[in-house]
Design a protein that fits this description.
This protein has helices at about 45-60, 75-80, 90-100, 115-135; strands spanning about 1-10, 15-25, 35-45, 65-70, 105-110. It is of the alpha/beta class. The longest helix has 22 residues, at about 115-135.
């Protein structure tokens, strides 16, 4: 089974407000890397944290051993079953579906601590949130 590390992040310009999510997928042997990001016109930060993990897992083409690394306690604790998922039920359900064919563990990282991939996810999510804000202000 392939081993993959997925770094994720979510960001909102205001909470709630224009949001962005990101995921950086890296093979365990570091021979492959993929960056993903996207935006949503109106979301909460927690919704974007979940979306980053969902999209990262959905990008995997075959069953994998996965570490999802995030600076979000909400995502990590909920993903590992340590807290009840009262809000965002549809997204938690989507996350359960996305992880169903993989063996997944969620690992917490201290945010803004100089970790290269975590910092990259933060940049991508903030850029995506800004894109959502600009699109709302200046629709094409």
């Amino acid at each position: 089974m392939n081993q993959v590390i997925i770094y994720t992040d979510g960001s909102c310009r205001t909470n709630p407000g224009p949001g962005g999510w990101s995921a950086v997928l890296i093979s365990k042997d570091r021979t492959r890397r993929k960056e993903l990001s996207g935006s949503v016109a109106h979301a909460t930060n927690n919704e974007m944290e979940l979306r980053g993990a969902i999209e990262g897992l959905k990008a995997l083409k075959r069953p994998c051993l996965v570490q999802v690394r995030s600076d979000s306690r909400y995502l990590v604790d909920g993903g590992n079953g340590l807290t009840r998922q009262k809000a965002n039920k549809a997204l938690w359900s989507e996350l359960r579906e996305a992880r169903s064919k993989h063996r997944v563990i969620f690992v917490w990282l201290k945010g803004h601590n100089g970790h290269e991939e975590n910092e990259r996810c933060d940049e991508l999510a903030k850029e995506a949130a800004l894109d959502a804000e600009l699109e709302a202000e200046y629709p094409t």
